[in-house]
């Protein structure tokens, strides 16, 4: 019996903090970006968490996302919203798919078919807790779908803006799940500008990636989960398809919190931020040794989820990648599509293009000696491959004609 959704558990948020200046902000208030326009991070009394929750007590709970309640921001149990946020499996892939010692964390199993559910379930629960009634957000597809689903579930009104070439399935799933969705002739940051303008006029709350503090806390659960699933021993390397970078930043934060709790040691995975070479602002900044990334013009890639020309948390991504000893890596669309096809064929695991990008980057890293075949590596498949266009399957059989069974 899962009581993660219903049990009243103690919470430990002390305050929020500007990720750039360290300036403190009060908890339990509605916040967007910090005064200097940078993301706010949620801080906890980790000593108290450690006194309240042991690894054994945690192990006795159901494994869903809400088991981590003491490390999450939601204060009141009745504000929890859920569509069944399971712990996602680590699926090994074979050598023929391109793996040495590789596990794919398959986030496509989450509600709405992507890991955006992790971030949005938390952001919506907090919006509810803080009394928000109307939310707007820019999206490349999956985030909008997750927002629409959770917000509709708790009766919050949502308006979603997406680039006009957002995959049709995403636009429709957003609409059918109760949001008002608008296609915009521009990219995601152009959509973000519209959201920002409306928010400044007081029309709605801006739930853009990293512009509110709680999506990170939801995405952080990827790092918490990974540590628990691997027996509190982190992998040697993580390949993460990086758009806004919420997940990478969140995992890095999770590892830090777990170490402060004494649940893991100081060992960290090398974090590889994977981008498509048609939209690689973080890779360019990494290679140039910059702390911030300039906007990438003419962004294009089949991996829509990582088509993000500008990330407000750029410096946090770059910092985590550098501190970890990892890199930012770009991969081309042909390599992405080949990785998806190879993994599906060899291992029966259908990756999304963004997940394919991590496999393509891993293969390239093996080739260049950046990773060793024996090293334990985790790739993130962030959405179900079923949401994306697949290669044609044109065979057709006339059951009334003579059937050439040898040819089947
Ligand atoms: C949003 C998204 C990403 C990028 O995630 P960030 O944490 O925002 O960098 C990658 N893949 C898919 C499928 C996505 O929907």
Strand and helix order: EEEHHEEHEHEHEHEHEHEHHEHHE
Shape: globular
Q: How many DSSP helices?
A: 12
Give the terminus-to-terminus CA distance: 48 Å
Which residues sit in consecutive blocks of at least 5 with pLDDT less than 50? none
Question: Approximately how much helix is present in the residues?
Answer: 25-40%
Number of domains: 3
Number of DSSP strand runs: 13
| Ligand set | pyridoxal-5'-phosphate
What is the CATH fold-level name of the largest domain?
Answer: Rossmann fold
Sum up the structure in keywords.
alpha/beta, binds pyridoxal-5'-phosphate, 6-stranded mixed sheet, 408 residues, Rossmann fold, 35% helix, 3 domains
């Amino acid at each position: 019996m899962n009581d993660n959704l219903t049990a009243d558990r103690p919470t430990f948020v002390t305050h929020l903090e500007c990720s750039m200046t360290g300036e403190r902000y009060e908890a339990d208030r509605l916040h967007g970006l910090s005064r200097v326009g940078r993301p706010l991070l949620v801080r906890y009394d980790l000593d108290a968490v450690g006194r309240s929750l042991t690894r054994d007590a945690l192990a006795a709970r159901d494994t869903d996302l809400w088991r981590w309640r003491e490390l999450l921001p939601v204060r009141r149990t009745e504000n929890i919203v859920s569509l069944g946020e399971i712990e996602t499996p680590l699926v090994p892939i074979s050598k023929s798919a391109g793996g040495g010692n590789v596990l794919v964390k398959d986030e496509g199993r989450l509600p709405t078919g992507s890991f955006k559910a992790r971030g949005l379930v938390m952001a919506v629960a907090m919006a509810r807790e803080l009394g928000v009634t109307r939310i707007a957000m820019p999206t490349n597809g999956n985030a909008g779908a997750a927002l629409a689903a959770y917000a509709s579930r708790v009766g919050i009104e949502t308006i979603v803006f997406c680039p006009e070439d957002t995959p049709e399935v995403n636009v429709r799933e957003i609409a059918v799940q109760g949001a008002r969705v608008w296609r915009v002739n521009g990219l995601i940051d152009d959509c973000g500008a519209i959201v920002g303008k409306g928010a400044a006029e007081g029309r709605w709350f801006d739930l853009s990636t990293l512009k509110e503090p709680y999506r990170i806390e939801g995405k952080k659960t990827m790092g918490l989960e990974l540590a628990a699933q691997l027996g509190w021993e982190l992998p040697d390397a993580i390949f993460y398809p990086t758009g806004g970078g919420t997940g990478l930043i969140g995992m890095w934060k999770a590892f830090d919190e777990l170490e402060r709790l004494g649940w893991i040691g100081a060992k960290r995975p090398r974090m590889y931020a994977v981008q498509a070479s048609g939209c690689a602002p973080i890779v360019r900044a990494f290679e140039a040794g910059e702390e911030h990334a300039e906007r990438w013009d003419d962004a294009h890639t089949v991996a829509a989820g990582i088509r993000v020309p500008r990330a407000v948390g750029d410096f946090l991504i770059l910092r985590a990648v550098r501190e970890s000893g990892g890199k930012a890596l770009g991969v081309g669309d042909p390599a992405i599509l080949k990785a998806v096809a190879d993994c599906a064929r060899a291992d029966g695991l259908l990756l999304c293009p963004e997940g394919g990008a991590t496999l393509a980057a891993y293969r390239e890293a093996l080739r260049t000696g950046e990773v060793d075949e024996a090293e334990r590596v985790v790739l993130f498949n962030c959405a179900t491959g079923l949401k994306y266009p697949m290669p044609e399957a044109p065979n057709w059989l006339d059951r009334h004609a003579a059937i050439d069974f040898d040819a089947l």
